[in-house]
Amino acid sequence: MAATTSDAGTRRDFLYVASGAIGGVGVAAMAWPFIDQMNPTTATLAAGTTEIDLSPIQPGQQIVFKFRGHPLFVRRRTPAEIAEANAVPVASLPDPLANNDNLADSAPASDANRATKPEWLILIGVCTHLGCTPTVSTPQMPEGDYGGWLCHCHGSQYDTAGRIRKGPAPRNLQVPVYSFLSATRVKVG
User: Which sequence positions are flagged as catalytic?
Assistant: First the structure.
Protein backbone atom coordinates (compact mmCIF):
# COMPACT_ATOMS: atom_id res chain seq x y z
CA MET A 1 0.00 0.00 0.00
CA ALA A 2 1.51 3.28 -1.02
CA ALA A 3 1.02 6.44 1.01
CA THR A 4 0.98 9.81 -0.62
CA THR A 5 1.66 13.06 1.16
CA SER A 6 0.38 16.29 -0.23
CA ASP A 7 0.41 19.91 0.99
CA ALA A 8 -3.08 20.37 -0.41
CA GLY A 9 -5.78 20.50 2.28
CA THR A 10 -8.01 17.58 2.85
CA ARG A 11 -11.74 17.55 3.21
CA ARG A 12 -11.28 17.34 6.99
CA ASP A 13 -9.22 20.59 6.99
CA PHE A 14 -11.96 22.31 5.01
CA LEU A 15 -14.59 21.17 7.52
CA TYR A 16 -12.51 22.52 10.44
CA VAL A 17 -12.10 25.93 8.80
CA ALA A 18 -15.74 26.15 7.71
CA SER A 19 -17.00 25.13 11.18
CA GLY A 20 -14.76 27.71 12.84
CA ALA A 21 -15.94 30.47 10.49
CA ILE A 22 -19.62 29.64 11.02
CA GLY A 23 -19.05 29.51 14.78
CA GLY A 24 -17.35 32.93 14.70
CA VAL A 25 -20.23 34.45 12.73
CA GLY A 26 -22.70 32.90 15.19
CA VAL A 27 -20.88 34.36 18.22
CA ALA A 28 -20.77 37.79 16.57
CA ALA A 29 -24.49 37.58 15.73
CA MET A 30 -25.30 36.70 19.35
CA ALA A 31 -23.03 39.44 20.75
CA TRP A 32 -24.42 42.24 18.54
CA PRO A 33 -27.62 42.89 20.59
CA PHE A 34 -25.53 43.21 23.75
CA ILE A 35 -23.12 45.63 22.11
CA ASP A 36 -25.89 47.61 20.38
CA GLN A 37 -27.79 48.19 23.64
CA MET A 38 -24.84 50.27 24.89
CA ASN A 39 -25.44 52.91 22.19
CA PRO A 40 -27.49 55.96 23.16
CA THR A 41 -31.17 55.88 22.27
CA THR A 42 -32.60 58.18 19.62
CA ALA A 43 -34.30 60.20 22.38
CA THR A 44 -30.94 60.78 24.03
CA LEU A 45 -29.33 61.82 20.77
CA ALA A 46 -32.20 64.23 20.08
CA ALA A 47 -31.78 65.77 23.54
CA GLY A 48 -28.08 66.36 22.86
CA THR A 49 -28.76 69.70 21.19
CA THR A 50 -31.60 72.16 21.30
CA GLU A 51 -32.47 75.30 19.38
CA ILE A 52 -33.97 78.21 21.28
CA ASP A 53 -35.94 81.16 19.93
CA LEU A 54 -34.73 84.24 21.83
CA SER A 55 -37.24 86.73 20.40
CA PRO A 56 -39.88 86.47 23.19
CA ILE A 57 -37.34 87.10 25.99
CA GLN A 58 -37.43 90.72 27.19
CA PRO A 59 -34.45 92.60 28.76
CA GLY A 60 -34.12 91.59 32.41
CA GLN A 61 -36.10 88.39 31.88
CA GLN A 62 -34.94 84.80 32.23
CA ILE A 63 -36.51 81.73 30.65
CA VAL A 64 -35.72 78.19 31.84
CA PHE A 65 -35.48 75.38 29.28
CA LYS A 66 -34.68 71.70 29.75
CA PHE A 67 -31.35 70.61 28.31
CA ARG A 68 -29.93 67.10 28.79
CA GLY A 69 -32.14 66.61 31.83
CA HIS A 70 -31.00 69.82 33.54
CA PRO A 71 -32.43 73.33 33.68
CA LEU A 72 -30.91 75.72 31.16
CA PHE A 73 -31.04 79.39 32.16
CA VAL A 74 -31.30 81.83 29.24
CA ARG A 75 -31.18 85.39 30.53
CA ARG A 76 -31.39 88.59 28.53
CA ARG A 77 -29.37 90.97 30.65
CA THR A 78 -29.99 94.68 30.96
CA PRO A 79 -27.17 97.20 30.39
CA ALA A 80 -27.08 97.74 34.18
CA GLU A 81 -26.57 94.00 34.80
CA ILE A 82 -23.81 93.85 32.19
CA ALA A 83 -22.08 96.91 33.70
CA GLU A 84 -22.37 95.41 37.19
CA ALA A 85 -20.80 92.12 36.00
CA ASN A 86 -17.98 93.95 34.17
CA ALA A 87 -17.14 96.00 37.29
CA VAL A 88 -16.18 92.93 39.35
CA PRO A 89 -12.42 92.24 39.37
CA VAL A 90 -11.71 88.59 38.53
CA ALA A 91 -9.12 88.43 41.33
CA SER A 92 -11.88 89.01 43.91
CA LEU A 93 -13.89 85.95 42.80
CA PRO A 94 -13.81 82.65 44.70
CA ASP A 95 -13.52 80.82 41.35
CA PRO A 96 -11.33 82.79 38.93
CA LEU A 97 -11.99 80.39 35.99
CA ALA A 98 -14.72 80.94 33.40
CA ASN A 99 -16.11 77.35 33.49
CA ASN A 100 -17.16 77.93 29.89
CA ASP A 101 -17.24 74.88 27.59
CA ASN A 102 -16.71 77.22 24.61
CA LEU A 103 -13.28 78.31 25.91
CA ALA A 104 -10.07 76.80 27.26
CA ASP A 105 -10.21 75.49 30.84
CA SER A 106 -7.77 78.20 31.95
CA ALA A 107 -9.86 81.15 30.68
CA PRO A 108 -10.46 83.76 33.40
CA ALA A 109 -13.99 84.38 34.71
CA SER A 110 -14.39 87.84 33.20
CA ASP A 111 -17.87 88.75 32.04
CA ALA A 112 -16.68 88.64 28.42
CA ASN A 113 -15.64 85.00 28.94
CA ARG A 114 -19.00 84.08 30.44
CA ALA A 115 -21.25 85.47 27.66
CA THR A 116 -20.52 85.35 23.93
CA LYS A 117 -22.86 88.28 23.37
CA PRO A 118 -23.02 90.47 26.50
CA GLU A 119 -26.81 90.75 26.37
CA TRP A 120 -27.34 86.97 26.43
CA LEU A 121 -26.22 84.76 29.30
CA ILE A 122 -26.74 81.02 28.85
CA LEU A 123 -26.01 78.74 31.82
CA ILE A 124 -26.63 75.23 33.08
CA GLY A 125 -28.89 75.89 36.07
CA VAL A 126 -27.28 73.47 38.51
CA CYS A 127 -25.55 74.69 41.67
CA THR A 128 -21.95 73.49 41.71
CA HIS A 129 -22.14 72.63 45.41
CA LEU A 130 -24.64 69.77 45.57
CA GLY A 131 -26.58 69.99 42.31
CA CYS A 132 -29.60 72.02 43.45
CA THR A 133 -31.40 74.47 41.14
CA PRO A 134 -30.79 78.11 42.10
CA THR A 135 -33.58 80.67 41.80
CA VAL A 136 -33.19 83.84 39.78
CA SER A 137 -33.18 87.30 41.27
CA THR A 138 -35.54 89.84 39.72
CA PRO A 139 -36.28 93.47 40.63
CA GLN A 140 -39.70 92.34 41.84
CA MET A 141 -38.24 89.48 43.89
CA PRO A 142 -34.57 90.06 44.81
CA GLU A 143 -32.60 86.92 45.67
CA GLY A 144 -29.22 87.20 47.38
CA ASP A 145 -26.78 90.10 47.43
CA TYR A 146 -25.51 90.07 43.83
CA GLY A 147 -28.59 90.24 41.58
CA GLY A 148 -28.02 86.84 39.97
CA TRP A 149 -29.08 83.52 41.46
CA LEU A 150 -29.47 82.11 44.96
CA CYS A 151 -29.34 78.44 45.91
CA HIS A 152 -31.65 78.26 48.92
CA CYS A 153 -30.38 74.85 50.04
CA HIS A 154 -26.98 76.01 51.30
CA GLY A 155 -26.88 79.72 50.52
CA SER A 156 -24.62 79.86 47.46
CA GLN A 157 -25.01 83.21 45.70
CA TYR A 158 -24.15 83.92 42.06
CA ASP A 159 -23.82 87.29 40.36
CA THR A 160 -25.33 88.52 37.08
CA ALA A 161 -22.66 86.60 35.14
CA GLY A 162 -23.35 83.31 36.96
CA ARG A 163 -20.12 83.49 38.95
CA ILE A 164 -20.02 82.23 42.54
CA ARG A 165 -19.68 85.14 44.93
CA LYS A 166 -20.64 83.74 48.32
CA GLY A 167 -21.43 80.36 49.87
CA PRO A 168 -20.12 76.80 49.68
CA ALA A 169 -20.32 76.31 45.90
CA PRO A 170 -16.77 75.74 44.59
CA ARG A 171 -17.24 76.78 40.95
CA ASN A 172 -19.13 79.21 38.74
CA LEU A 173 -22.29 78.02 36.99
CA GLN A 174 -21.34 76.11 33.85
CA VAL A 175 -21.66 77.73 30.43
CA PRO A 176 -22.57 75.03 27.87
CA VAL A 177 -21.39 74.87 24.29
CA TYR A 178 -23.64 77.12 22.22
CA SER A 179 -23.62 79.14 19.01
CA PHE A 180 -25.87 81.83 17.60
CA LEU A 181 -27.60 80.73 14.39
CA SER A 182 -29.11 84.19 13.90
CA ALA A 183 -29.82 87.28 15.98
CA THR A 184 -32.81 85.56 17.60
CA ARG A 185 -31.87 81.88 17.47
CA VAL A 186 -29.26 79.95 19.43
CA LYS A 187 -28.20 76.29 19.25
CA VAL A 188 -27.12 74.76 22.57
CA GLY A 189 -25.09 71.55 22.63
Answer: 154
